[in-house]
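Task: sequence design from structure.
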């Protein structure tokens, strides 16, 4: 049973500098939670820490009452948490198909085949690109591959960091409904998004981070009604 992804008192340091200070954040199953803030506020560090790519100095991370704290990325994925890092990161030297296979390496052959079909049903544009080198397709298609990789993991939670970064509006419009559909299917989504109007429209709950601390947690509608909360966080960043 999915009870939520709970981050409590999370502190993280990078390069000898503390970048997260006692962060509390919850991602509920079947809902989109957005995390907003200026560049350098610590949003990507939070995603990397939850995904197991960055160690925490204190605090805890739990998914459905199972601890993720200190686990390696592959163990985090196997427990149902998939990250889509900033910058549509794919294995550029591998084919699109091999990128998808690599994402589901913890699955059985039958499970992997079914998971890849689910991802390709989500992004049918990729079917004609399966044999192509991932580094040779467009940035928008690479972002589809990155999100498809997360779907292949059959996650209960997806952490999407700057999904629209560097992409044309038509591609962003293609990706946004996928986030909504994932939540409707019961997946808990953490959405970090540079276009705040998109994030607030999709989100059921919103957080604002400023210099590694949560400065707001509440209804997205409150941020739409009072944009000064966001403005101050972005100016401070």
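Answer:
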């Amino acid at each position: 049973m999915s009870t939520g992804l709970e981050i409590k008192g999370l502190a993280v340091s990078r390069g000898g500098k503390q970048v997260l200070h006692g962060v509390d954040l919850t991602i509920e199953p079947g809902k989109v939670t957005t995390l907003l803030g200026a560049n350098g506020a610590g949003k990507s560090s939070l995603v990397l820490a939850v995904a197991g790519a960055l160690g925490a100095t204190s605090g805890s991370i739990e998914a459905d009452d199972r601890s993720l704290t200190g686990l390696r990325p592959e163990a985090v994925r196997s427990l149902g948490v998939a990250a889509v890092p900033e910058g549509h990161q794919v294995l550029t030297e591998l084919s699109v198909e091999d990128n998808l296979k690599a994402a589901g390496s913890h699955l059985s052959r039958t499970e992997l085949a079914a998971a890849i079909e689910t991802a390709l049903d989500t992004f049918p544009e990729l079917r004609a690109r399966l044999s192509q080198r991932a580094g040779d397709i467009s940035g928008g298609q690479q972002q589809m591959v990155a999100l498809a990789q997360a779907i292949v993991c059959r996650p209960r939670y997806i952490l999407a960091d700057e999904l629209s970064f560097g992409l044309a509006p038509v591609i962003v419009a293609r990706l946004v409904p996928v986030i909504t559909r994932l939540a409707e299917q019961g997946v808990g989504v953490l959405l970090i998004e540079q276009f705040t109007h998109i994030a607030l429209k999709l989100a059921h709950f919103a957080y604002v981070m400023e210099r590694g601390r949560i400065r707001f947690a509440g209804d997205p509608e409150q941020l739409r009604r009072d944009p000064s909360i966001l403005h101050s966080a972005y100016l401070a960043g």
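The domain at 5-87+156-236 is CATH 3.40.50.300 (Rossmann fold).
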